[in-house]
Design a protein that fits this description.
4 domains, about 550 residues, 11 strands, Alpha-Beta Plaits, alpha/beta, five-stranded parallel sheet, about 60% helix
């Protein structure tokens, strides 16, 4: 802590230094001033917590210093040390926040007691100030979220305005006399990728920055208020209620602020003028439609309105028209074939004069459904959780690849689409390789354990696969079902054993996995056309 000693007599300041155990009180800095004016300069520079001052001094006396402290350093605690037993001076000390009035000559015990009392008072006040600071920080953190939720609620359901009208008037100056509004929307979906990449690890910070920039302009003269849409992770909504006819020009001004602060501009969609609060939802929907229906292949303006709609797109080009070609390309495992199919798709896309966010979103949903269908088709038998895991490589919503001018970059989109489909093809090839390996492992197991009571269920448990999956894959690989394959192995081994005249038929049957000699003979004749005994006679006679 710091203490400032103010007295025009140096010997008094020296005496105070000697009479106090500063270390015991936690004081590590002692400042001195010969008058009130010098004291104010030191207080402004060093901000001492405790000030001990005389009352009768030249230039600026203690009375004036107390008044100055009350106005400019109200947190500091003041102890008056005076040679005048004057009630008016005592009253002035109390009026302007002094904690004690000590008469000269100074009593050491009284001085140390007064200092201890002042320090305790300052500490108690500082704890309260710290608590208030923490509360203010918490409130400043919560308040934007509160307004986000409240205003998003009004956008969705205008009737909720009445319950919040008083707060909106008090906090945002949105008075009951305001009966018209316009809504504008800023969406990260149509923002340059380079900017989003800078904030890729903290998109909340980007949204916070954009919202603050908007409100720096909007709240200065009470034009409106910007907030994050509670039901969208990418939207900032601007509710405008003043100078509505000049709203487009004002959004241009905000955009210049964006360019200065973040070195980028953004697209705004803006709705028409409507009654507030009754039709605020309608204005919001118009703003959203204007943004979603802007032509991503052209840069005519940054402010998009339904009053100036983009040209209507040509008859819809659907992604599903290319599903079969893409399916075959994926199965081929050829990157070149995949690139050729995607090039065919992109060539058709390039012929469109107009591509909107709405159209991109439709293509994205088609592609997402196709990918899910491919996964379920290529990797049949896998769980829903595994399907979701395999689809996590792609984002959950459409990413709009824009260049530095905010125009749709078809080359970036083509690269991203190629990467995604090549990745799918690689997963399929890896899975096929894995399937083939495990089927051959099962085949090897049968070769080594043909003499045991091997069942499909036992193999399924051993290799952690379903019986249906093993049966299907085994038939695909060997063109025969598993039980027949096992039977062929057993008959092949049995023919070798039957050539040994010292082994009975029943022994041979048991050695190749049949406990019942009659059943063994029946299976043998079915596969070989003759009985085991006939085979033995024939083979031994050769």
């Amino acid at each position: 802590m710091k203490v400032l000693l103010v007295d025009d007599e140096k010997h008094v300041r020296d005496a105070i230094r000697l009479l106090v155990n500063w270390q015991q009180h936690g004081i590590d800095t002692i400042l001195e001033a010969p008058d009130g004016e010098s004291a104010t300069a030191l207080i402004a520079q060093h901000h001492p917590e405790i000030i001990m001052t005389d009352m009768m001094m030249p230039i600026m006396n203690g009375v004036k210093l107390l008044e100055w402290l009350h106005a400019n350093a109200p947190d500091a605690k003041t102890i008056v040390i005076s040679g005048h037993d004057d009630f008016s001076l005592l009253r002035h000390t109390l009026k302007y926040g002094g904690t004690d009035y000590i008469l000269k000559p100074i009593d050491p015990g009284q001085l140390n007691e007064a200092l201890d009392k002042a320090i305790q008072a300052w500490t108690k006040d500082e704890e309260l100030r710290q608590t208030n600071r923490e509360l203010n920080i918490e409130m400043n953190t919560i308040k934007p979220m509160y307004w986000d939720k409240l205003l998003s609620g009004i956008i969705a359901e205008p009737s909720t305005y009445e319950s919040a009208a008083e707060q909106l008037d008090k906090e945002l100056h949105l008075t009951r006399s305001i009966n018209e509004c316009r809504v504008a929307i800023l969406s990260l979906d149509t923002m340059e990728r380079s900017v989003k990449n800078k904030f890729s690890q903290n998109m909340d910070l980007l949204l916070f920055s954009l919202t603050n920039i908007c409100n720096e302009f909007l709240t200065t003269d009470g034009r409106g208020y910007a907030f994050r849409h509670w039901h969208s992770e990418t939207e900032i909504v601007l509710l405008l209620w003043k100078d509505l006819l000049g709203a487009e020009a004002f959004l241009e001004k905000i955009n210049e602020g964006m360019r200065t602060a973040l070195h980028t501009r953004v697209d705004f969609g803006i709705g028409r003028l409507h009654a507030f609060p009754a039709d605020v939802t309608l204005s919001y929907q118009e703003a959203r439609d204007a943004l979603r229906k802007r032509n991503l292949k052209a840069r005519d303006t940054w402010i998009h309105s339904m009053l100036n709609p983009a040209k209507s797109p040509q008859p819809a080009l659907t992604f599903t028209q290319y599903e079969e070609k893409m399916n075959l390309a994926i199965r081929s495992g050829s990157t070149q074939q995949i690139e050729e199919v995607i090039q065919m798709w992109m060539d058709n896309v390039k012929q469109s004069e107009v591509i909107t966010l709405e159209q991109l979103d439709l293509w994205w949903r088609e592609y997402t459904v196709m990918k899910r269908r491919w996964v379920q088709q290529f990797f049949s038998g896998i769980s829903e959780d595994k399907v979701k895991e395999m689809l996590t490589d792609d984002p959950t919503s459409v990413i709009v690849p824009l260049d530095e001018q905010g125009i749709l970059s078809l080359s970036q989109w083509q690269q991203e689409l190629t990467r995604s489909i090549v990745h799918m093809s690689k997963m399929l090839l890896e899975n096929q390789h894995k399937d083939k390996n495990v089927i051959f492992e099962i085949s090897e197991y049968l070769q080594n354990h043909y003499h045991e009571d091997v069942t499909l269920q036992e193999i399924a448990s051993r290799f952690f696969l379903s019986r249906e999956y093993i049966s299907r894959k085994f038939k695909q690989e060997f063109e025969v079902n598993l039980s027949d394959y096992l039977g062929q192995i057993r008959m092949s081994k049995a023919k070798v054993l039957l050539r040994n005249p010292h082994l009975r038929i029943s022994q041979v049957a048991e050695m190749v996995g049949y406990q019942d000699e009659k059943y063994f003979s029946k299976v043998f004749k079915k596969l070989e056309g003759i009985t085991p005994n006939e085979y033995r006679k024939t083979s031994n006679s050769i």
